[in-house]
Amino acid sequence: MYGSRMAAARDTVAAKIGRVYAGLDTSMETYPEDDVESEPTAYLRAMASMSPGDAVIIFVPDDLHAQVATAAARRGLHVLLAKPAVKTLQEHLDLQAEVAAAGVLACVEFHKRFDAMYSDARNRAAALGPFSHFASYMAQPKQQLDTFRAWAGLRSDISYYLNSHHIDIHNWMAGGRARPERVVAMAATGVAEAKLGRPCEDTITLMVQWRNTPAARSAAGVGDGGGGGPCLGTAVYTASWVATKGDCHTQQGFHYAAHGGELRVDQAHRGYTGASNQEAAGGGGGGGGGGGGGYGSYNPLYMRYTPDANGRFAGQAGYGFVSIARFLAAAADINAGRLSVEDVRREGELAVLCDTVAVTAILHAGRLSLDAGGAAVRIEWEE
Questions:
Q1: Per-residue confidence at 285, pLDDT binned at 50, 70, 90?
Q2: Residues whose CB is less than 8 angstroms from the CB of residue 39 and which lie 6 or more positions away in sequence, other chains included
């Protein structure tokens, strides 16, 4: 944490929010103080100013998620983690134990769950029988490498950053009826290395073997494969940050195929386009308009950045906003005794940490596979 950057952070919030929308208070208390160059554990002092039952939202480099979230749980604070939750399976299991011991709510901010199309697809998938194939693609323009220059290829990679979204959606759609068991990863290189001057993958593809559970096959009246073998499914998740700047910031979507039907969602294009001589107002990671004016595909379903007729913020219905609002509401309900963590899990909407183990396992296995030259990495499950 760098105190010397806090003044600029406050200025950015004031410029992007305070001076854009009427009636929003953007004042904030920041740690460390502006005259402190660096204080890696400043978050501990920030947490010390909070009370048990308060909530923390953790947006720090991926390799710091586990230690910051653990500190929060030990202080009785509810936790919302930016994706990915953590980088390794062991970190996930350790944090899960800390959270359970503290009795707090810990979730991952997978906002695509609150996109009406993705949510509907998840519920439709339950009636389509055993899983067969899933393919997702998510890409952002190469300018992202400038934004993430400090950590790209050093502390995390594009698979953790973007593939995590659709791996969670797939795992959520599977609903415990299938689980991953083998991962092979491959990468494209060249653009990022030239831009950053160090090794860094441009595009990462994870190929994952899934196995439908016996219960899922039995419920659907499906036997073990034609010759008595297993009932398997395949998944291909691709993420890139070297795309050419286009009509929207993020090109993204998925195809889900099951024994009883298929589902496709193009999350980048919602049938709303426009053109302007001015710089686009933005659309963010949810597939909003391209960042340089001209022609763009807009997605206010993710976040509505345009003020309402009275100059006020009007994005409360966007799934990017709802994702955080639902977590805060759930934390408040737990504090008031209206809900338990188990109740939140049963509702199945928020990505509760203990229900996203498979996501971390796939991401970690993908990194291990890349580091081993594309070797297959097996995920073992306790029965």
A1: very low
A2: 1, 3, 31, 32
Contact 205/185 with Cβ under 8 angstroms? Answer: yes
Composition of the chain by helix, strand, coil, percent to 5: 35, 20, 40
Task: Please give the sequence-ordered ranges of beta strands (E in DSSP) within 314-360, or none if there are none.
Answer: 351-352
The pLDDT of residue 2 is: 87
Determine how many CB atoms are found less than 10 A away from the CB of residue 240: 26
> What's 320's DSSP letter?
H
Q: Which residue shows structure tokens 């206010």? A: 300
pLDDT digits (tens, 9 = 90+) for 76-111: 999 999 999 999 999 999 999 999 999 999 999 999
Closest CA to 232 of 207, 256, 213, 205: 213
Beta carbons within 8 Å of 309's beta carbon, 6+ residues apart: none
Per-residue burial over 133-171, b if 16 or more Cβ lie within 10 Å, else e, is: ebbbbbbbbbebbeebeeebbeebbbbbbbbbbbbbbbb
Burial of 311 per CB tally in 10 Å (0-12, 13-18, 19+): exposed
User: Is residue 230 classed as helix, strand or coil in its secondary structure?
Assistant: coil
84 preceded by a cis bond (ω within 30 of 0): yes
> What does the alpha-carbon distance between residue 337 and residue 97 come to, in Å, rounded to a whole number?
22
- How many angstroms separate the CA atoms of 13 and 51, rounded? 25
Q: Please state the pTM of the whole predicted model.
A: 0.94
Query: What whole-number distance in Å separates Cα of residue 204 and Cα of residue 175?
Result: 25
Which of 82, 85, 242 has the alpha carbon at shortest distance from 153? Answer: 242
Tell me how far apart the alpha carbons of residues 27 and 13 are, in angstroms, rounded to a whole number: 9
**258 with 222: CB under 8 angstroms?**
no
- The radius of gyration of the chain's CA atoms, rounded to the nearest angstrom, is 21
**pLDDT category of residue 216 using cuts at 50, 70 and 90:** confident
CA angle 343, 329, 23 (to 5 degrees): 170
